[in-house]
Amino acid sequence: MAKVLIIGAGGVGGVVAHKCAQARDVFDDVLLVSRTLSRCEKLQREIAEVQGREIRIGQVDADDVAATTRLLERERPAVVINVALPYQDLPIMDACLAAGVDYLDTANYEPPDVAKFEYKWQWAYRERFRERGIMAVLGSGFDPGVTNVYCAHAQKHLFDSIRHVDILDCNGGSHGKAFATNFNPEINIREITARGRYWERGEWKETDPLSVSAVFDYPGVGERKSFLLYHEELESLALNLRGLERIRFWMTFGEAYLKHLEVLGNVGMTRIDPVLYEGHPVVPIKFLKELLPDPSSLAAGYTGKTSIGCLIEGVKDGKPRKVFIYNICDHAACYREVRAQAVSYTTGVPAVTGAVMMVTGQWPKQPGVWNMEELDPDPFLADVARRGLPWVVEERAVAGS
Ligand SMILES: NC(=O)c1ccc[n+]([C@@H]2O[C@H](COP(=O)([O-])OP(=O)(O)OC[C@H]3O[C@@H](n4cnc5c(N)ncnc54)[C@H](OP(=O)(O)O)[C@@H]3O)[C@@H](O)[C@H]2O)c1
Predict the structure, then answer these.
(1) Using 50, 70 and 90 to split pLDDT, how confident is the model at 401?
(2) Is the distance from the beta carbon of residue 117 to the nearest atom of ligand 1 less than 6 Å?
(3) Nearest 5°: phi and psi at 118?
(4) Closest atom of ligand 1 to CA, residue 11
(5) Is the distance from the beta carbon of residue 295 to the nearest atom of ligand 1 less than 6 Å?
(6) First CA to last CA across the chain, in angstroms?
(7) In the chain, what percentage of residues exceed pLDDT 70?
(8) DSSP assignment of 70-94, as one string?
(9) Which of 128, 124, 120 is nearest to 98 (CA)?
(10) Among 27, 109, 177, 358, which has the minimal tally of Cβ within 10 Å of its Cβ?
(11) Residue 56 contacts by C-beta under 8 Å, 6 or more apart in sequence?
(12) Residue closest to 297 by CA, chosen among 346, 261, 255, 344
């Protein structure tokens, strides 16, 4: 039995706390901390009511490395699940190094003043984590996360070599709001308004934001227009998949969402640099975040499904093969189980599975910093399916065969 420390009490943090509370056979002590204590108090009450279990709560500003280190030294958890914002990744990793505690997150580090996410900052911790004898697992959400593990499963069991991967992410659900984001608005809008990027034959190719689209048929949802985006798992998968020639990421957006985003961009509301307003510096995107619905508030009444997977093409036993490995997740079913919508659920459940892999030794402890596809996909996929995210492998026709 293990103690888990969850940092971040937002949409994803709520799911992680509910699911850790459900995992009575693994976690005998669940501690949820965040910057705003009232959010932890609300989740503590909700978890007592829905899961019938008391979790402990606390307050910490995870940008303060010394404060987080003191918390870790006092509590000595088996693992920290970081579901605060990407800005907190490095300070929390520093605290884990100081206190000697294993670490897991769902999103890679971004500097607040540059809309750019790359693994280089977190990969730079590899040597220090190895020397300290502790393990960090990066990106254990859905994408990144489960999508990386689908690729690892394909590499281990389904293909001799993989040529093409297209990661397809569709939210076919409806929350009934004119404009809202399904996870932290600031992080979400920074990601979507960035230039597109994909990897082909050893080179990164750039596209204008949202300028490349294609229609894909998503199981459980149907055909949807999808836009090419840069997404962080492309960086590690391009390195870790043998024989890979191309990898891209696609996400669906509705017309109304894109129109709102265009107008907000045109008037400067998505800017990440401070502007002076009546003598006070204000970062427009941070102000916009305060106006938009909190992602966790979308859950009640959300209908429809997410459908996310990896379309993988390659060679098996000398013959071309194409498969789609995917999960379908229902917003309303997530709400009934953990009071969350499916985007938070599909991120939070894999974070818990990753932590279970670490504390139960199903991923043997390997000091260092790891991306998901570098670890054994088999126990992870069995566990994540049991915990609420079953997966399907569907054979697809190969063009020309
Ligand atoms: N891999 C995936 O599939 C995937 C998908 C979606 C999201 N994500 C990631 O999941 C994470 C959480 O997303 P979310 O939608 O849950 O965001 P959210 O609803 O905005 O919640 C973020 C939480 O982190 C807390 N926090 C922020 N700064 C903090 C600090 N300095 N110290 C302690 N706590 C702090 C916030 O506290 P306050 O209440 O005080 O603001 C809030 O409770 C993000 O990193 C996001 O990028 C990953």
Answers:
(1) low
(2) no
(3) -150, 155
(4) 16
(5) yes
(6) 52
(7) 100
(8) HHHHHH--SEEEE-S-GGGHHHHHH
(9) 128
(10) 177
(11) 29, 30, 31, 32
(12) 344
Residue 355: predicted pLDDT: 98
Nearest ligand 1 atom to alpha carbon 146: 3
Please state, in angstroms and rounded to a whole number, the distance separating the CA atoms of residues 355 and 378: 15
The DSSP element (H or E) to which 21 belongs, if any, is: helix 11-22
Which amino acid residue places its CA nearest to atom 2 of ligand 1? Answer: 141
Q: Which atom of ligand 1 is nearest to the CA of 183?
A: 15
In sequence order, what are the residues at sequence separation of 6 or more whose Cβ sits closer than 8 angstroms to the Cβ of residue 68? 7, 60, 62, 91, 92, 95
Question: From CA 134, how far away is CA 165, in angstroms rounded?
Answer: 32
DSSP string, 284-310: HHHHHHHHSPPGGGG-TT-BSEEEEEE
Q: Is the pLDDT of residue 116 over 80?
A: no
Tell me how far the alpha carbon of residue 7 lies from the centroid of ligand 1, in angstroms.
Answer: 9
Residue whose CA is at the smallest distance from ligand 1 atom 26: 84
Nearest to 9 by CA among 49, 51, 60: 60
Whole-number Å distance, alpha carbon 65 to ligand 1 midpoint, is: 17
Q: What is the pLDDT of residues 171-199, one digit of tens each?
A: 999 999 999 998 888 888 888 888 999 99
User: Atom of ligand 1 at shortest distance to CA of 13?
Assistant: 16
Would you say the CB of residue 196 lies under 6 angstroms from ligand 1? Answer: no
For ligand 1, is residue 84 a contact (CB within 6 Å)? yes
Query: Across all residues in the chain, what is the average pLDDT?
Result: 96
Distance (Å) from CA 34 to ligand 1 centroid = 9
Domains of the chain with CATH codes = 2-141+345-385 (3.40.50.720), 146-342+391-396 (3.30.360.10)
Cβ(36) to ligand 1 under 6 A? yes
Angle between helices 11-22 and 37-51 (to 10 degrees): 40
CA of 134 to the centre of ligand 1 (A): 24
